[in-house]
Amino acid sequence: MLAIERKNEILNKLRAEQRVLVSELAAHYGVTEETIRRDLDKLEKEGHATKTYGGAIWGNSTKTDLSYTIRNKTNVEAKTAMAKVVKTMVEDGDHLMLDDSSTALYIAKELKDKKKLTVITNSVEIVMELAGLKGWTILCTGGELKADALSFVGYQVPQILANYHVDKAILSCKGIAPDAGVTDSAESHARAKQAMLRAARETILVLDDSKFDKTSFVQITPLSGVSTVVTNQKPSDDWLRRFEELNILCRYAL
């Protein structure tokens, strides 16, 4: 099979299934994983895909919101590793805000053996995940339900969040860049995350390495607006220096 034919088949698979895995494609086509990564590089440059940890997803993820079913199956290994790091930063009895990202859902799952946490979130999935935990207090913002994301958005969310003061706000984003700061693809999500940042003594931004040097539609906060960054792999020396200059603690799984 010619390389262009393979790339077009991968593109069709992305359109149909919304995500692909490097290991599965390499086995299917009988080529190396590096060959598949080059195919995905080309598709990303053409604007058809966004590379993720171990594969790629359909479209440009910095500009669009993926459905929760796709988000929850993307970068699972990285999200699990980052969630374990965040767990070490949360103490029994903490009051937390968690955003509506799939990363926050993995963090919620990892925190379930903690005691007497209070969690405020606009994520339906997180509420369902934590429902019934003895000694926990779970608060949901309400608002306009965004069905494809299983989250609440709208003007009500920042208003409700403004009533609370918490120990830690834990959130994710679509990208971070030196000048653009922390960005997201939709203003409604960004406004909710801004309210969480304002309500917290400590702000923890959790993002995998694919989101570095990426800029999405709307700014959540300048880099200086977060106190800790958690990621799956050690960032570049340039990023580590920038974090140090801004007095941002950086923790990573690998």
From TrEMBL:
<dbReference type="InterPro" id="IPR036390">
    <property type="entry name" value="WH_DNA-bd_sf"/>
</dbReference>
<dbReference type="InterPro" id="IPR014036">
    <property type="entry name" value="DeoR-like_C"/>
</dbReference>
<dbReference type="InterPro" id="IPR037171">
    <property type="entry name" value="NagB/RpiA_transferase-like"/>
</dbReference>
<dbReference type="Pfam" id="PF08220">
    <property type="entry name" value="HTH_DeoR"/>
</dbReference>
<keyword id="KW-0804">Transcription</keyword>
<keyword id="KW-0238">DNA-binding</keyword>
<feature type="domain" description="HTH deoR-type">
    <location>
        <begin position="3"/>
        <end position="58"/>
    </location>
</feature>
<dbReference type="GO" id="GO:0003700">
    <property type="term" value="F:DNA-binding transcription factor activity"/>
</dbReference>
<dbReference type="Pfam" id="PF00455">
    <property type="entry name" value="DeoRC"/>
</dbReference>
<dbReference type="InterPro" id="IPR018356">
    <property type="entry name" value="Tscrpt_reg_HTH_DeoR_CS"/>
</dbReference>
<dbReference type="GO" id="GO:0003677">
    <property type="term" value="F:DNA binding"/>
</dbReference>
<keyword id="KW-0805">Transcription regulation</keyword>
<protein>
    <submittedName>
        <fullName>DeoR/GlpR transcriptional regulator</fullName>
    </submittedName>
</protein>
<dbReference type="InterPro" id="IPR036388">
    <property type="entry name" value="WH-like_DNA-bd_sf"/>
</dbReference>
<dbReference type="InterPro" id="IPR050313">
    <property type="entry name" value="Carb_Metab_HTH_regulators"/>
</dbReference>
<dbReference type="InterPro" id="IPR001034">
    <property type="entry name" value="DeoR_HTH"/>
</dbReference>
